[in-house]
Amino acid sequence: MAPSNEKTYTWDEVKKHSTAEDCWIVVGNETNGGPKVYDVSKYLESHPGGSDVIEDVAGEDADESFEDMGHSEEARNIMRKYLVGTLFLTEEEKAAMEAKKAKAKSSGGMNIMMLIALIAIAIGVYTQIIAKQEKGAAESDQDV
């Protein structure tokens, strides 16, 4: 539960802050203390990954993007400076967020399979290149 002195915002209020000059994001979910609202406008230029990655989720739920990046404890501590409140969710909004997260979680396996396939292809291409280089080197050694 949020402290009583913490302001509560609705999605409509958060969505109004969706520009680089006025950039709010929502990070958090029911499993980690609930969705929190952050005003990261002054942090955009300092973000190590560039301002674009935050601007892409301005005024939106950035929890999945934030967690997928595997942010460090230091990054989480930095976030605390920009906390402006908690997000109030209606029962319908809670259900929609949970459904969205469940869908994202179930489709995550496909991304891993695609990554494995791409790595296998890269290894195959690399092996072919090395084999051609070795063959070329062996042929030039015979010419000497």
Automatic annotation (TrEMBL):
The keyword Transmembrane applies. Keywords: Heme, Iron, Membrane, Metal-binding, Transmembrane, Transmembrane helix. The chain crosses the membrane at residues 110-131. It comes from the Eukaryota. Pfam families: Cyt-b5. It is found in: Membrane. GO terms for cellular component: membrane. Residues 6-88 form the Cytochrome b5 heme-binding domain. PROSITE patterns: CYTOCHROME_B5_1, CYTOCHROME_B5_2. SUPFAM superfamilies: Cytochrome b5-like heme/steroid binding domain. One of its GO terms (molecular function) is heme binding. Its main location: membrane. Belongs to the cytochrome b5 family. This is Cytochrome b5 heme-binding domain-containing protein. It comes from Phaeomonas parva.
